[in-house]
Each structure stands twice: as structure tokens, then as C-alpha cells.
TrEMBL record, chains A, B:
Family affiliation: Belongs to the ROK (NagC/XylR) family.
Protein name per its UniProtKB record: ROK family transcriptional regulator
Signal sequence coordinates: none
PANTHER family noted in UniProt: BIFUNCTIONAL UDP-N-ACETYLGLUCOSAMINE 2-EPIMERASE_N-ACETYLMANNOSAMINE KINASE, ROK (REPRESSOR, ORF, KINASE) FAMILY
Organism the protein comes from: Streptomyces spongiae
Length: 410, 410
DNA sequence: AGGGGTTAGGAAAGGGGGTTTACAAAGTCC
DNA sequence: GGACTTTGTAAACCCCCTTTCCTAACCCCT
């Protein structure tokens, strides 16, 4: 249990100020102070730091009520680039962002079922990272860092993928291997936490002390934002909500247990819900999760009774599971994220809200918002890039206090 | 989302030092520095503060390896008194502690089923508090504070019991009402968090950053110690684990939901497990939870097959539920607390460990210890008193720096 | 008995951090 | 052009922790 130091306070405040600037660009120091609750002096110092780092720039002035005009600052989009890497079971996706977190370039690499050796995956990642840097035409020096998300349990400090169930990896020194191909600072974590941090910085969890980001994809999990920070647990594997028991002695899960949430609301689980209801439905595309979920979404839009029923059943399971999260964590907001949530959208959300209302305790439920993720792009890449951003912001504390040298503002 | 300030660091360190002193009295500054990871200078300042407050005293010297002997400090048991109040459905229990957290006096007041009005409860509390102060013969001035635990949802800042399901209280200004009868500083919270804080200070969660305290009584809940602090949630109702769904469409719970954990592993749930297995068992004492649980415990000790089976069944439910906690929180330790856990003891623990092993993910499970609470007395009273202790320690930050006046050591 | 070695603990200096206060800068209004 | 307003920086201050220096207190050895 490491001690909290005053430096942590500084880092947290730096995060908060930059978050706020990214969220609302351009903005004034006054507004930042009001939004963050910090004093004007502190905001001014932090803004000065960020200006020195060229992460933001002064962009003009705003009339004040009869006095000196407010100076405005905005993200300096071209002040650097961040790269997010989403390693999944069947593909590697890499996105390059500017500092406004806009996607400048993207590269996808498909991985064949056989390609599961770490060396092969590392090769794909290196190729894709090289590709986005070339595409975006940024000089390498401007890349502030590369965040890598890999499913499973990782040690973010040593950069080791301790356990990745997809490929049966054990203690793969992924970051060291990548470092041989990639010269930028590297950061490792898993998709659950990537999505959580993306919501915390840019999504529905912004400014919320306690939030749970529910990830609905092929697998299912929850990213926990508690007390303003990511909760990681003692071995960095907190948030394994997908293997929570929802139905005692229920469906068999690949984890060996029965009745896991994932077997009912993960994409394969939803397919099973559909198959059990209507084995011959045309909505069902065996062997293709994405197609099936998309077909369901279209079906719901067209008021197809089978699709409606499947979504309702799924929402019922999901609602019971989310109600548990509401009761346990009493968060301000629960965010539904990842591709299944994005595909099924509002209809799912509505049903889920009703189901949660039935299962959760009244008062905690009343305190909790349930929303869809407002993030339009791949949240895993964005979150991974955010790890790189956080890394860049933390490391500046380490070096000397960056004495501001005569910064002219004309 | 309030900001963290440098004062919070000080308070946390103060807690840690005093915790350590209470745990191991007498002790030296050197040992404290090693145990807390703080510098010697900081430890010395904090120890000085506590000496000034008369919470600890210098008690002698210890030989060092050939140099100046180490000064030893110990809790000054008679330096003050703390009172913990445990308000439950059918009784009010009040205990008075010295600063070593030893029980000096105890008072129990039974409440008849009809007596549910706040005024009546307040009357009982006031009477019992008066009683323990008289019994212990301490001067009133030495009482540092009174911690009150009431089941349900409370607002600890305003001292309002927002919702107490036992008596259908809504927004009762409990602390204001008590303040008319009790002149000491008052602190309000609920039994879940009281047990958690008791474990954090004096029990199995000491020194652990992440711990879950599972409360097994008539009701069931979990106190969450995350990142070294209590997690309260946005409306101070985090930890309502008892109403987590364990069996979809299972037993009806008084909360209106089906299949809640509480209906299987709360005392009434265990009685139902017994009744379903063997309706005419002599172990069953209808209308008397305590007697039934005690009978079960004796039955297990005597290898009664029915008792063994009931405990095994209960442990199976409990294990599935606790496995969810292991997966979600990835804590260092899970503590089983409250009277049902104490009564069923080791046999329950053994079965629970096996059941959790079957349900939880392998790696998080390997990182988590599961233990019985080592606290021998009523953990709720102890925890409530601890709230008063924490209050006394926090408030000293507010006043002036207590300039140390010539403290002679002869 | 008196010095040298060793360890404990206090006092002062130093480096972070945040806030308050004072003041210069840059406008508006009369 | 002067008075008023508002912004933003600089300086002073308080809090916190650590490092460094020095004295206190004890041991051992001569």
C-alpha cells in the first residue's frame, strides 16, 4: 500500500485541468478554476505548465464584464500525437490521435486463428504502429507515447501480460518485446480499464467520482472508477464482472463455472438467447457474432417480435447484473460501452433501465444514472491512448520544474 | 467530488501511526517508521502530537544495539474514553472503551417490537450512554466522542438517518435528537461500515489497501475498504451486497426482489435452508434465529449430518456470492464478520473457501485470503467507537498546531 | 574515570503543493 | 483623461514530508 504524496495531488489536478480543456476548448482560466474548484493561482500555474509542454496554446481573448479580457487557451492539437493499440482475439487495431483526441490515422491487422504466438502479435502491432505514423505524417519525435490494451491480466508496471486466456499466454514480457520495435514510451493495460479511463476523460464518467463502465462485447467486464481513480485491485484484475454468478447452476461458461453473467449477455450469450427462443430465426448467423447482433438491432428497429423478445430477455439478465453493481457500488453513473452496447443502443438501454429498476434497491437506483457511452470511436484505442497521455503528464513531474523562460504572447 | 488536500495526507498518516501503536504497544519511533514507511522525522512529529493529546504516553526505554536507547510509547488507556452505540432492530447495545479499545462498560437495552418511534430509540440510547459513563466512572470530560450505528442509509455529515427499513424511518434527524441528551461529539454511520472500519483498524484488514468485510447477521452486507479508505458511494449506501441476485427468480426477499444473497445466507435464510432439508429437525427453533444458529454450530461440532449438510449448503451459496466479490474487487482479504460468522466459525470458513475456489477465477482467488474476523467483541460497537476516534483525530487538524510546551520526561 | 564509537531523536533547512494577498496589466465607462 | 473593473502574475504564507545536521544518551575500551 504505497503512500499518497503531495505530488499525487498535483498530478490529479493536472489531469483534471487538461481534461476540462479538452472537453471545452477554448476556455479561460476563470472557467477552469470554477470547473475544477482550484484557486486561480493554481490553475494559472498548471496552465503555464501545459503551455510550456506545448500541449495547449493561447488562442485569443474573450470579453469580460467591463474589465480586462480573459485569455483563452485551447488544446494544441498538433502539439503531439498519441497512439492507442487494441489487441483483440482476431485483430489488432491501432489509432493515432492528436492531442484533441481526434483520430488522425488508423490501421487494422487481422490475425488468423493460428497466429497466437506473442512474436506474431508483436509483429502485427509493430507494423500497424509504423503504418499510422507514416499515414499521419507526423515526425516520430512528436509521438508522446503508445498505449497498448491486451485482454486478460497484466502487470502495468513491468509491462508483462501475466495471463491472456484468449491465447493461453502466461507471463509474456509484452512491453519489452514491443520496445525492440517501437521507440516511443509504452504503456500496458487491459481493455476494461482502457474503456473506463476513456469514459473518465472524455465520456459519461467525466467529473464523476464513482462510475462503473460496463463493457459489452464478446466478453463482458466492468471498469471501476472509484473515488476519482481507477480501482485495480491487488493483482490488477478487479472488474471481472463477466464471471459473476447470475444464475446458480446456469449455463456453462468457458471459465469452468456455471451461470456467469457473460454467458447470458456477452455476444455469444445473446446468440444463445436467440437460438433458445427461435432456433431457426433468420436473424441468427452462426459463427458470426457481429452479423447476428447487427441483425438483431435491425430487427428491433423493424419491430420484429423475435428480436424484441431477445433484447428484452437479454436486458433482463443484464438488468439483474447491473442492479448488483448499483447496490454494491452506489455509483453516480453506469456507462454501457463496447460494440454490443453501441449496436443495440437505445432499445437495449430502455429495457435495461426498467430491469434494473425492478432488481435494484430503490434509493441507490435513484442516485444512479444509466447511460450509453457517448464515445463515437473505438473506446479501447481511445483509452489506450489516454494511458499514454496520462503517462506523459505524470512524467513531467519527475524532471526539473521547467522554469518558464520568457514566453512572449504575441 | 471534493478535492484531496495535503491535510488528508496528514490525517491518514496520523491514523496509521495510532493504529500501529494500538496494535503493538509499547513500540518505538523507529519501529513505527519502519512499519508505516514514513520518515523518522514525520513519525516523531505525529508521535509528538499524540503525546500532546495525551492519547499515548512515554513508557520507558528499550536497549538499542549499543547506542542511545529507544524511547517507547504506548497507548494511554486512561487518556480518554470512546463510546460505541449499536442500534439494532430489537436492542440497543452501548459499550464504553478506553483508548486501547478495551471494553470498560456495557449496557444493553431491549426494545419491544412496538417501540419503533425515533423518540423511543433515542431515549434508550441516552439511557444506555448515561449508564456506561456512570459504570465506568470516567469524568464526562474525558469522553472523546460517541459513534452511533444505525442500520440503513444514513447521511453521516448531517447526521440524518435517511432510511431505516426496520422501522420505516425516513429522514430522521437522529444526531440532532441525540444531541439534546448527549453532550459529547456524535458521529453517525451504519453497521456495515462500522464493521469495516473495525477490521481496518483492529482486525484482519489492518494494513491492507483493499479488503471486503462480509457481514453475516440477520441481514447481510459488505463493507468495502478500497485504496486504504472506506468506499461509501454517492449516496452513502455502497456495500448492499445482501440484495445482490444470486439465483435469478429464486426466493422472495423482503426487498421485493427474488433470489437475493440475503435470503440464502442471512440467519433467516439459513433457517430456511434447514427447514427445506429437514422440516422437523430438532435443530430448528422457529422464531429464534440465535438459538437455531447456535444449535447448528453445536450440531456441526457433533458431526450431525443434517447440520453438516445445512452448513455445506449455506457455504455453497455464500461461496458463490463471495466469489463474485473476489472477481469484482480483487481484494487482498475477505473478512467474515458478525454473529452468524462467529457462531459457525471454522467449519463454515473451510466450506466457504472450497466453494469460493470452485466459483471464482483462479488468479484473483489466489491473491485473496478469506478469514474469520479476529475481533472478539461486538464489532459494530467497536467500529462505531472507532468513528469517534477518527473524528477526534481529524478535528485536531482544525485547531492551532498545539505548540508543544516543555514536556519533561522524568 | 574518561574518551571514542554508536544509535536515537530533535531542530533546521529544503522541496512540493495550494491559497491568499498585493499589484500590474488591460480593458470599459463617464 | 481619470475612475472603475476584471484578469493574471508574483510574492508571501501555510501545510506536509524528507534530508541533513547536531546533540543526547548509552556502550565499550583503555
Amino acid at each position: 500500500m504505497r503512500h499518497r504524496t503531495s505530488r499525487d495531488i498535483r498530478t490529479a489536478n493536472r489531469y483534471e485541468v487538461l481534461r476540462q480543456i479538452i472537453a471545452q476548448s477554448p476556455t479561460s482560466r476563470q472557467e477552469l478554476a470554477a470547473a475544477t474548484g482550484l484557486s486561480l493561482a493554481t490553475v494559472a500555474t498548471l496552465v503555464g505548465e501545459l503551455l510550456d509542454l506545448r500541449m495547449i496554446t493561447e488562442v485569443g481573448f474573450e470579453d469580460s464584464a467591463g474589465g480586462r479580457p480573459r485569455g483563452l487557451v485551447a488544446v494544441n492539437a498538433s502539439g503531439g500525437a498519441l497512439i492507442g493499440v487494441d489487441i483483440a482475439e482476431t485483430y489488432v487495431r491501432v489509432e493515432l490521435f492528436d492531442l484533441g483526441l481526434n483520430v488522425l490515422a488508423r490501421a487494422d491487422e487481422d490475425m488468423r486463428p493460428g497466429e497466437s504466438r506473442p512474436e506474431q502479435v508483436v509483429g502485427h502491432v509493430a507494423a500497424a504502429v509504423g503504418s499510422v505514423v507514416t499515414q499521419a505524417g507526423v515526425e516520430g519525435a512528436r509521438v508522446l507515447g503508445v498505449g497498448v490494451s491486451v485482454p486478460g491480466q497484466v502487470d502495468r508496471d513491468t509491462g508483462v501480460a501475466e495471463y491472456a486466456p484468449n491465447w493461453d499466454w502466461h507471463d509474456v514480457p509484452l512491453l519489452d518485446m514491443l520496445a525492440e520495435h517501437i521507440a516511443y514510451p509504452l504503456y500496458l493495460d487491459n481493455p476494461l480499464r482502457a474503456c473506463a479511463v476513456a469514459e473518465q476523460w472524455f465520456g459519461a464518467a467525466r467529473g464523476r467520482g464513482d462510475a462503473v463502465v460496463v463493457n459489452l462485447g464478446t466478453g463482458v467486464g466492468a471498469g471501476l472508477v472509484l473515488g476519482g481513480g481507477l480501482h485495480r485491485g491487488v493483482s490488477n484484475s478487479a472488474g471481472e464482472w463477466g464471471h459473476t454468478t447470475l444464475v446458480l447452476d446456469g449455463r456453462l461458461c468457458h471459465c469452468g463455472n456455471h451461470g456467469c453473467v457473460e454467458t447470458y449477455v456477452g455476444a455469444p450469450g445473446i446468440m444463445l438467447n436467440l437460438r433458445e427462443l427461435s432456433p431457426k430465426s433468420t436473424l441468427l448467423h452462426p459463427e458470426d457474432q457481429t452479423a447476428t447482433i447487427d441483425a438483431l438491432a435491425r430487427g428491433v428497429a423493424e419491430r420484429d417480435p423475435v428480436a424484441l423478445k431477445v433484447v428484452r430477455d437479454t436486458a433482463r439478465y443484464l438488468g439483474a447484473g447491473i442492479a448488483d453493481l448499483v447496490n454494491l457500488f452506489n455509483p453516480q453513473v453506469i456507462v454501457l460501452s463496447s460494440w454490443v452496447a453501441a449496436a443495440l443502443g437505445e432499445p437495449l438501454l430502455t429495457e435495461v433501465r426498467e430491469a434494473v429498476a425492478r432488481h435494484a434497491l430503490r434509493r441507490p437506483f435513484a442516485a444512479t444514472e444509466i447511460v450509453l457511452s457517448p464515445i463515437p470511436t473505438d473506446p479501447v484505442c481511445l483509452g489506450a491512448a489516454t494511458f499514454a497521455l496520462e503517462g506523459a503528464l505524470s512524467s513531467i513531474g519527475g524532471q526539473r520544474p521547467t522554469r518558464r523562460t520568457a514566453r512572449s504572447r504575441d
